[in-house]
Amino acid sequence: MTKYEQLARQLQGQIAAGAWQPGDRLPSLRESARRADISLMTVLSAYQLLESEGWIRSRPQSGYFVAEPLASPIEHSPSLLQPAETVDINAVIFKLLQAGDDPACVALGSAFPDPSLFPRQQLARSLGRVARQLHSQGTGVSLPPGRIELRRAIARRYAARGMRVSPDEIVITSGALEALNLGLQSLTVPGDWVVVESPAFYGALQALERHRLKAVAVATDPQKGMDPDALAEALERYPVKACWLMSHCQNPLGGTLPAARKQRLLALLARHDVALIEDDVYGELYAGDEPPLPIKAWDEEGRVLHCASFSKTLGSGMRIGWVAAGRQAEAVQRLQLMSTLSASAPMQLALADYLSGHHYDKHLHTLRRTLAQRKQRFCRAVQRAFPPSARLHGAEGGYFLWIELPAPVCTTRLYWRALAEGITIAPGRMFATDDRYRHCLRLNTSLPWNARSDAAIRRLAELIGEQLA
Amino acid sequence: MTKYEQLARQLQGQIAAGAWQPGDRLPSLRESARRADISLMTVLSAYQLLESEGWIRSRPQSGYFVAEPLASPIEHSPSLLQPAETVDINAVIFKLLQAGDDPACVALGSAFPDPSLFPRQQLARSLGRVARQLHSQGTGVSLPPGRIELRRAIARRYAARGMRVSPDEIVITSGALEALNLGLQSLTVPGDWVVVESPAFYGALQALERHRLKAVAVATDPQKGMDPDALAEALERYPVKACWLMSHCQNPLGGTLPAARKQRLLALLARHDVALIEDDVYGELYAGDEPPLPIKAWDEEGRVLHCASFSKTLGSGMRIGWVAAGRQAEAVQRLQLMSTLSASAPMQLALADYLSGHHYDKHLHTLRRTLAQRKQRFCRAVQRAFPPSARLHGAEGGYFLWIELPAPVCTTRLYWRALAEGITIAPGRMFATDDRYRHCLRLNTSLPWNARSDAAIRRLAELIGEQLA
């Protein structure tokens, strides 16, 4: 080892041991050289090496600082496993979801799109046709991987985007949440490490906890999704078995991975032989005219489990999702056979019938336009009413708006205050295993814009103002 | 302690330590008395005490023998956890279930009733009505505990039997299998002990394995179900958290717990504060005219999680079940919220619509009569064709027949041989974590009796004959 490498390793050891904390300024080049009695160039080389490895960052005119770790291990922190804490978060989630069902509530915290946006009439026709077929055919028992009619219809939709996904690797599930859970179980045993986003969909955090997995939360950009450098670091440092991320309209941030980033993330996972659970339930709600390709499109090894559903586009109550599970297709089926057996056969057939017509793409086109208009309305209203320091993310695609408020605001407190007045929000606390997003919240912008939603936004702004006062 | 008690405890210690194995003959009274230099009566008293406690058994003219333990711990034996073994059993189960879907197969191994027995026309009408309502109402999001319409309809059926079950403790699930899994998860953490039947429904064994629980397999009588003495022993010896059993038409034996035994089992569980998962999916298929009460009927503490479904009476493909979960109702809902969210809303509404009419009880009456007739037919054919030493169990209620063949027969071999000829059976190997039922098989007698089923029974008898030759 050369002298500069020795110095670098020594400093790295000190950082890892906590002697230098993230944000600390390192001694200047000159000072270090004097102390260690080595040349300025040697110190500079050491610092540059550490910078290239991500341990420190230089700031022009200011010197070198210890970097924030891009990947922070969660490893079942007390806040994740402490029963009281867990129950508390589940209670918030439970209330949020129930409020979405309560017509008296302005459900800005809901994860579901406004149900009036669903094509009920056409779905009813399909369900009616299935009902009439029941006379003669019966439903029999429905087994994994699910009805071939529906698997073929889904495979055709992949094909229309130029992707080769065989009906044989598709497993129909009771909503995408089951697909995600079964995929995760098929890839891991308790104690394994899994990469998740930060902030992450709470369903992912709950699944990790339930299956006793260890999580590495990886920095995720509000616009561009998971940071490849952070993922690389996580894969270097931890024996990761699976990575769970959302490629489009990420929940809660709203961001979408650019195509180049998708490929880079997949290449990193391939290099470390790690499977990807691609949660793509918002994939059809993209912004603009061009449908983005899922990461699965670049997967030639069966490494990606692409999970999606009809819950965000046709109706949340049907509970039909799927996973294009690649190499895991059989493992997922066996796990399903032991848990729910299969999804409802008449519902599968009704969806296959609906997809066989040409309504779906037309419906999606209208849905995307409506969601974009409603989101614009909400954005303008929030910008008008909220403090100017509030930062808005997720303005493009999907129906979530992620809002960063000034640090003193606690959105968990805001949640309880608003709930008492018939308004729900999704507090930042739901999307991490610690308090780092306590000043953030997620709003559902799929609701129709009217006097009630207008009043709700204004009232939220007032409650935030009270906290800041 | 008196002298005889001392001797008894000494012998018990030796048995527990393995010095005496099950089946070993203990020294005669006379010999023991001589060795220990105590009176014959003291030895006799000691032996009688041990016999009353179940440690030893007397055989007339032969002396005293160490008893087979009634409750045998499984504690994740290698055969349960060894991946190859697990995969093998899952492969058998998977093939069996798929063959049930294959019209070219005589699916005597299937767990599902003949689908032609389902009231398709009336269900189709209900589904059609729900489809028409979709126009105006939509399905919205379906959340735990499930649609109130269906929970009320189920609660009314309990009430009709004189049971008090509130809609509030009922959680609608994706079939009973999900109810059983969620119930088990709500009661245990990995490493906990759970009592199961021997032989047991394979779904229970798989669930224990998946949740990394330890199992005590408790002796179960083919006619009268779980042995209360064996349960008592299991509860004394192991820190049991939950007991999972089938009260009616047990799978695979076919037996039903008499009312007195139900109460005794519940009292034992209450004394040890252990929860009961009552798997009652065959409860409506009872023999005779009087509907038996589930154990839940005697439960005044919310200790029993009564799990059932419509899969065996109305259609296996709908995937609608429920649990009347007592004290666990909220815990079960939260677990469901993290896994499948909820069962399909249109299917729930269709079933609620169907139950609101008066067809169900009439249908069940006919179904029970048809199943009883078909079972009789099958029994006669099996008795005629199989070797005279074959013992038949489960002749009353449900649609399973459990057959004990002479010890040399291996039903796993029989399974593979028969499958090659388009006939499935359920081999004994599926219902335990070891080989103790390798000479047993389960037949589904719900199939229509015709030339094909007749030929299949004869062919099975021939294949058994080949193994015995």
UniProtKB/TrEMBL annotation, chains A, B:
Highest rank taxon of the organism: Bacteria
Domain HTH gntR-type: 1-69
GO MF annotation list: DNA binding; DNA-binding transcription factor activity; pyridoxal phosphate binding; transaminase activity
Residue stretches in coiled coil: none
InterPro entries: Aminotransferase_I/II_large (IPR004839), HTH_trans_reg/aminotransferase (IPR051446), PyrdxlP-dep_Trfase (IPR015424), PyrdxlP-dep_Trfase_major (IPR015421), PyrdxlP-dep_Trfase_small (IPR015422), Tscrpt_reg_HTH_GntR (IPR000524), WH-like_DNA-bd_sf (IPR036388), WH_DNA-bd_sf (IPR036390)
Pfam family name, one: Aminotran_1_2
Keywords: Aminotransferase, DNA-binding, Pyridoxal phosphate, Transcription, Transcription regulation, Transferase
Family of the protein in this entry: In the C-terminal section; belongs to the class-I pyridoxal-phosphate-dependent aminotransferase family.
Protein name listed in UniProt: GntR family transcriptional regulator
Annotated source species: Zobellella denitrificans
